[in-house]
Design a protein that fits this description.
Number of domains: 1
Number of strands: 9
CATH superfamily: PAS domain
Shape: globular
Protein name: PAS domain-containing protein
InterPro entries: DUF1457, PAS
Helix content: 10-25%
CATH topology: Beta-Lactamase
Distance between the termini: 20 Å
Pfam families: PAS_5
Organism: Microbaculum marinisediminis
Structural class: alpha+beta
Order of helices and strands: EHEEHHEEEEEE
Number of helices: 3
Length: about 210
Amino acid sequence: MWKSPEFRGGRHGTSIRHAANRTLYRYWDELRGERPAPMRHEIEPTQIGAMLSDTFILEVSPDKEYAYRLAGTRVCGYFGQELKGRNWLDGWSDQAREALSTLLHTVVTKGTGALVGFTGQTERGHTCPFETLVLPLVNRGATFTRMIGATMPLDQPYWLGAYPVVSLDLTALDILWPNNSGHFRPPPRKPGATGDFPLLRKGHLALYEGGRTD
């Protein structure tokens, strides 16, 4: 299993499964240096050219909507529509939408990254697992008002791109803490504290605040 030396996530560590998402994470991590996140204008498309069609940029609005400002052709092809201007949270169940809204709010307020696993299904009943990586960007000032991400299929079925995904089933969600983001980490637990309490639960899934500090 691939283990990144550049981030710590989850109570037991988090692994980015798709190689292209690992590439995007490394590029983002190198670009930011010692800063919490890179500037939006520093993203150079030629540096991620091989996966550009799988990437997207989200804009954060005050009412906690996350609209696509840009979306690659393959991402749009997976869903059979132009995504620009659409809310990233559209298409999920109410329960999943609540969990994902909490996750993205953590990204833009704490400077973390996020991983989302889901199964996409077509009208014909075809299914495919996907992994989405989301990372914060600074557009202006010092706040995270943009996010860069990529949605990658973890399988390559024959129908992918020909039959659009019409329903989404959330299967995993994780927070990624970059190694030098200690000033964003929650404070150490007080002596005598027991248990880790999730920000939100969705069935067998739980979204936790923070990651390992070792």
